[in-house]
Structures are given as structure tokens and as C-alpha cells.
Amino acid sequence: MRIVKSMGGAGKMESIENAEGAGTVKNRRRRGRAGGAGRTGARAAAMLLVFGMAAGMLAGCGKKPAEKIDIAVAALKGPTAIGMIQVMENAENKETANNYNFTIAGTADELTTGIVKGEIPIAAVPCNLASVLYNRTGGAVQIAAINTISVLYIVETGETIQSAEDLKGRTIYSTGKGTTPEYTLNYLLRAAGIDPEKDVTIEYKSEATEVAAIMAESEDAVAMLPQPYVTVAMTQNEKLRIALDVAAEWEKYTDDGSSVVTGVVLVNKAFASENKAALDAFLDEYAASVQYVTENVEDAAKLVEKFDIVKAAVAAKAIPYCNIVFLEGEEMRTKVDGYLKVLFDQQPSSVGGELPGEDFYYSR
Questions:
Q1: Full-model pTM
Q2: Which residue from 212, 295, 324, 356 could staple onto 233, CB 3.0 to 4.6 Å apart?
Q3: Quick one: which of 175, 174, 170 has its CA closest to 199?
Q4: DSSP character for 342?
């Protein structure tokens, strides 16, 4: 009876014991065998309750929390890394579901070998690179989420560009000859009824900094630049303004639900299969990080600088225009499918020679 009291049944069991002690010996004898049987039944029930509770406690004590595993995670300097900045901070403080070892690279080439070998099971990379690696590895990788919609913008030192149609007859400075920026711009121009080869002059430069320098010195120029270079260029020339959001223009002309997908979360397929719970936990943390970044720009910008991605002052101005998102499932697939097809139609090698199959898309 004392054990039951200590286990939380004190009120009820203590009252039974006191009731038995309240009567005289004579009264207890008068009850005879009937009273003894009652007491025996009560004691038996109490002991069964004690044993049941003890067994439950022992079973609970035997369960160990899932052990954390070490996971290599990579991203590129720039918007594709900014969305996971809170995960990086939490990992440094050992507050994440697993142990993440982050690598922030300057170029995609620094990551491809590790991804192909399976040494980097999770990476934030350009969308078309994910398709290229899917084809190169025979389908050994897949994408789990979109982390960045287009970071491309049409900027000008004037007020003449209000829609894509207004680009006709203009000289447009850009980067990315023979890569996704060129294919994106060509698609946008054609969608607006403009022939990229006849109706405009496009001058491609090797670096975004070159284009920014041209815009800083020009009184009447148009360019297509990515963030955060747009922000940098605007700090150098107060006359420069954002005329068009390339993703918004793309979505205006398309009816298949696609968009300009800049970055995705790439995962090793074998890792995803063998560590589904760990991957899903990371994706939940990533989604929360994206929400944190978009809702707490100033604080996020400080972390962006802390992890040497870009200076906080630039990040604070650029983040609202980086289209940082976390899209998965069918919405992810719809946006990516149409985008990759546009790239494939212009240059099949830009997506690895073939469009990826259905297994390219991870599903929870």
C-alpha cells in the first residue's frame, strides 16, 4: 500500500487503509471471512496496479532516443546558401536533429565530384546542374525541394522598361553566354514577341561585376543581372532601378505552372532511402530556416556575413529580392518540369542531354 501511495495513488489507497483501522477488533472479527476476502481482493488489485505501472516505467526507460548521424551538406555562396543560414547557426550550436558538416563553395565545380561520389548527400545547387548530375550518375540523385526561384532582374538607368515588350530595340548587357541566363533571356524575349537575334542586341560579359560597372557609368543602359549584384550595382548608381522581375515575367507568359528555378536541394538517392527520417528532419529544419530568413531579414543578414556568404549590409537589401522559398512535392515538380524543358529545347546539354525521369523528384 505504501508503494501505491508513492506511485500517485495515495489519496484513494490511503483512505481505504484508514477506514480499516477505524473500527474495533470486535468489529473486524464480526466481519470475519467476508472482510478478509475484501481486503485480500483490494490488496491484489493494488499490487497488480503497482506491477503494471512499474513495467511501463521500465519499458519506457529501455527506449533510447535516436542517435544523431553525421551528414555532409553543401551549398554555393549566394542566394542558394542564404535560405539554410539558420540551420547552419543551429548546427554550430548543436541544436539540430543531426550533425551537419557544411561546405560553402564558390563554384559548382568544387562540389560535383563529392556529390557524384556520394560524399556529399545533400547540396543546394543550381536546378539545371541537378539534372546534369542526375544524368551523369544514372539517376543516383534527386531533388527534394526548390530553395530559390529566379534571382535575375532586368535593371535600367531610366524609366522606359515597364514590360518585356519594351526591351525591343534595346542593347541588353548580361552574363552567362551559353548557360541558363542566356536561355532564360531568350525564352522571355520570344514569349514577348521579340527575336533575340534580330530585335535586340545582347552583349554578354564574363562577370556580373563587369555588367555592374557598365551600369554604374551609363546614363541609358539596360541589363539582366542576378542578386546580390543588382543590389551592389544600385549602391553604385542611384539612377539604377529594378525594371522587371524575370521570374514574374516568365510566369506571366507561361501557362504550365513553371517558373525560373534557380536553386534546388539535391539529395543522394541511396542516402534518402536509407536515412529517410534524417532527411525529412533536415527538410523540416530547412523550411523553418527559410521562414526565419524571409521574416527576420536584418538578423538573417548578420548570419549571412558570419558564415562568409556576403556582407550583412548587402544581404539585408538583397534578401527580399532573392526569391528564397521552400517548395516541395507537386508544386516543386510542376515548376521544375517546365523550366528544364525550356532549357532542353534550346540546349539539351544544359540539362545533361535528357530530361530527368519521375524518380528525379523526392517525395516524403
A1: 0.81
A2: 212
A3: 170
A4: H
